[in-house]
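Q: Entry one of two.
A:
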Amino acid sequence: MSEAPTPARPAVFPVIALIVLVALVLAIAVAKKTGLIEAGAAAQYAGSLFSLLMIGAGNVLPKRAASPQTASRLAGWILVLGGLASLGLWLLAPQEIRIALASATALSAFAVAILAAALHLKSGSPVGGRAHTAILQILNGLMWAFAMFLADVAIGGQSVLWLTAGFTVSMSLLEICLKGAAKKSA
């Protein structure tokens, strides 16, 4: 006998955790703008929160997939390990090299996780449908958020506006690629 599938659990905790993290990042931005904390400390706090977001995403994403596949688990492990490394750098690295090292570590982890998921998709492995597509889109979105944060801290000016345009284009291209891969596997 086969058991009836259990209904999907609502994602209440991850949503609340994300709202709290966004609220903390906004509080850091307000504190920096009002002069309560200096720019270096604000970057360190916000970067640490982004690293915690990576760790949380790496832990939650594979569990949210309909059937956790190798690509989802691998991407999750990469995000957790990259998030831990990035968090360690945000907290322990000397201030002169902190932003560059921590950001490079986080962006590399995102890139490797996306590449692993994309190679899994390209190899003809079964696609987890909407869950697999959602994982790739979330990874892409988180990577761009971190890149925008880095650009704002390191470069400033209009760089974030240009990265926003790049994000929009990359999400569109990702959707086109995923639909093409789904048609080939069908």
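Q: Entry two of two.
A:
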Amino acid sequence: MKQFFNSKPEQRRGIIEEAAGVYKYKQQKQKATGELAVTTDNLDRINDITHELKRQLEPLEEQRSLAKDYQRLSDQFAQVEQQALVLEITQLDTEQTSLQAEIQTTQQTLKNLKKTIDHLETQSDQLTAVDQELDGKLTAVNDEILTKSMKAEKYCRCG
């Protein structure tokens, strides 16, 4: 008891509370208060982190939007480029078909012209041969006329 009266008021209160059974609850309260303070600190940290994440979320949303726009435009560009290539291939195929038809027509025309040239050369050769034959006959007829003229002159002088 002496110790009880000689102790400080806080120590006396602790002894009384322990005897009354309140001390156990007070310790639980202090423990709970400590845990509550730790939890409050954790909640404050969580709030700070949440606030920071929300602050970072806006630029990320903007980047996501830009990335979606870029992907959409990239897909559209690829589709347009593919359509342009298909169109170009179709045009080149049409041009190739047209040129092949023109080549065939030109080749046929060339073949026909060669036949015509061959025919004309044959006719020319034939006409040259006929010309030479007629020149020979003309020369023979002229010689015969000359000979007969000379004979006729000779008979005319004599006669």
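A: Comment on entry two: Residues 2-158 form one domain. The chain has a mean pLDDT of 88.
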